[in-house]
Design goal:
Layout lengths: L5 E7 L5 H12 L2 E3 L2 H8 L6 H19 L5 E5 L2 H12 L4 H5 L6 E5 L16 H16 L5 E3 L3 H17 L7
Helix pairs in contact: 3-4, 4-6
């Protein structure tokens, strides 16, 4: 019987290294990578994140993740999920969305990236300064409301990579593997 796969999700405010580190660790660890659909949406459709746009982002992201999970990867690294989309909704619209709140957040491990890195404008990022700290608080609250206890990732880029690698490795080591 094959061992169960491990699903890791990266969460946190913009400009904290989630995407780059997800890509880097997926390559290095031989993981399947689930890119953030919200970024693709912002770059191709725009950043007018209406309520329906955010719901559509979450649904499309979920559909793509399900396709990827069907391949049964040993390790899936997901660059954000519905937790982040729900947090975006709260940040932009000032309230929780029932549809996003009802969508399951089901990674085995959440890594929460601290906002202790410089903010970099890239044409899609929106929350700088006080807004960045407010957004982080909303993300933390969204995780807590779903009973998710993330591993905090912070410090320099090298420290972040070491911390993330260690957390993922611990999780992988705790999962029974296939018998020989």
């Amino acid at each position: 019987m094959p061992g169960r796969s491990v699903h890791v999700c990266f969460a946190g405010v913009e400009s904290t290294g989630k995407t780059r580190l997800a890509e880097r660790l997926a390559r290095r660890m031989g993981a399947a990578l689930m890119p953030e659909y919200g970024r693709e949406y912002a770059e191709t459709i725009g950043t007018d994140f209406t309520a329906e746009a955010l719901r559509s982002i979450a649904r499309t992201h979920e559909q793509r993740r399900q396709v990827l999970l069907a391949t049964r990867p040993r390790l899936l690294i997901e660059d954000t999920d519905v937790v982040m989309t729900a947090a975006w909704f709260r940040m932009l619209h000032g309230r929780r969305d029932p549809e996003l709140s009802a969508m399951a957040a089901n990674a085995d491990l959440y890594l929460l990236f601290a906002p202790d890195t410089p903010w970099v404008a890239d044409g899609t990022r929106q929350f700088v300064g006080r807004d960045r700290l407010q957004f982080q608080a909303i993300i933390e609250d969204e995780l807590a409301s779903r009973d998710i206890e993330p591993v905090l990732i912070m410090g320099s880029w090298q420290q972040r990579e070491r911390q993330a690698t260690a957390a993922i490795t611990r999780r992988l080591d705790s999962v029974p593997q296939a018998a020989s």
